[in-house]
Amino acid sequence: MRVYSKLLKLMVTVWDYLPYILEGVWWTLGLVAGGLALGFIIGLPLSIAQVYGHRILKAIVEVYAWFFRSVPLLVLLFLFYWGVFPALGYKLDPLTCSILVLGFRSGGYQSQIFRGAIQSVGEGQYIAARTLGMSKLQGIFHIILPQALRIAFPGWVNEYAIILKDSAICFVLGVMEVLTRTRYVVMATLEPLLPYFIAGGLFIVLTYGGTKLVNMVYEKTKIPGLIGRM
Amino acid sequence: MPDDIVLRVEELYKSYGNITVLKGVSFEVRRGETKIICGPSGSGKSTLLRCLNLITRPDKGRIWLEGEEITNRNVNINKVRQKIGFVFQEFNLFNHLTALRNVSIGLEVVKKMKKEEARRIALQMLRKVGLEEHAYKYPAELSGGQKQRVAIARALAMNPAIIFYDEPTSALDPQLIGEVLEVMKALAREKVTGIVVTHEMGFAQSVGDEMLFMYDGKIIERGPPREVIRNPKCEQAKRFFQRIHELYAREER
Predict the structure, then answer these.
(1) Which residues of chain B have pLDDT under 50?
(2) Which residues does chain A have within 8 Å of residue B79's beta carbon, measured at their own beta carbons?
(3) At residue A82, does pLDDT exceed 90?
(4) Domains and CATH numbers, chain A
(5) What secondary structure does DSSP assign to chain B, as a single string?
């Protein structure tokens, strides 16, 4: 009976804090959307440069991708928040800095997702486009990318799931995302079990729901007859 | 230069590393002519075609297309390629586009034609290769022979001065070769200028105006196809046609 009433009390307390934690979902989604979008903006041109660019350009992209894929996210966050941005004269707020770092890093990963996809379209179609008189860019935009982006879709969905889970680390800078808020609740209630369970549950819902949603878009853009290949 | 010469090639050289693939190739193609190129694999046929539309840059030598020297560095390469149709062994259709869009996209993107106009021409071209009813299928839904006919329609739609065919039937199952050759024959009879790299000797003899036999990066024999095939003068050509003959004899048995 004593245990039961304690549990009940705990649930009531945490229930009070639930809206506070849930509000963190918006921040988490902001981190993810910002990071993914920036990563796309960086990663796609990098992948094109890596496949079609000059030798020097290729080397630069490789170094970029190698750096951001080799250094732990935690180190990157500290490096940019305390080191790089202040050194450049910028004092960024934690959210902006986190989005930028997530984006830089995701750009490295996404460049490799898109590079593989571009290469799997095959050189033949690109050459065919050029023989029609298309310029390099016309060939890439009208022929290669529409196919490469579809091929990259599963890898890209995976990147969503990864960046979503990685975004929790941004609590170290005090971004008001799910984990940061959960920790505050734990500190206030001195009850770790239920709040962390809730945080974990929220990430499961976001991962599952997000991948489901994106996969629905993927199904809609499939090319007839090419289903097996991708 | 006489007006009816569409393509003139002068002393073309190309090496990859220390392997010389083309060792001074020269010839001319007149308007309406169908030129056949054959020779053993590795003799430089495909490299020659790729050099002719500058997909690969030749190291030395000059090429004129309709009187304009296209090996000149100041020439707009994309403009030049619009005038040269290219049909590949592996078709290289655009997999994300329907047959119709495969044919019309060059007109839209390169020739900046209006969508309806490009569509109209594309349908006309598909009709010409007998594929009008497959216009809305995707490449993966077509047979090899149909794919290659779409590829020919795609090249034709640009209204090129000349069409290059790089072993257009080599990747096809035997029963699909006929339909592609029929289309090519019809075009040759309509006096669409073309260079055809092929081992189809029947095709060569029925519509070829001249045959160039390549060996080790050079044209070592040339003449009317019938003549070259039945009565080759050089040893290499004799051996080559003998082997082709044996191969076909075996298939017929």
Answers:
(1) 1, 253
(2) 133
(3) yes
(4) 27-222 (1.10.3720.10)
(5) --TTEEEEEEEEEEEETTEEEEEEEEEEEETT-EEEEE--TTSSHHHHHHHHTTSS--SEEEEEETTEETTSTTS-HHHHHHTEEEE-TT----TTS-HHHHHHHHHHHTS---HHHHHHHHHHHHHHTT-GGGTT--GGGS-HHHHHHHHHHHHHHT--SEEEEESTTTTS-HHHHHHHHHHHHHHHHTT--EEEE---HHHHHHH-SEEEEEETTEEEEEE-HHHHHHS--SHHHHHHHHHHHHHHHHHH-
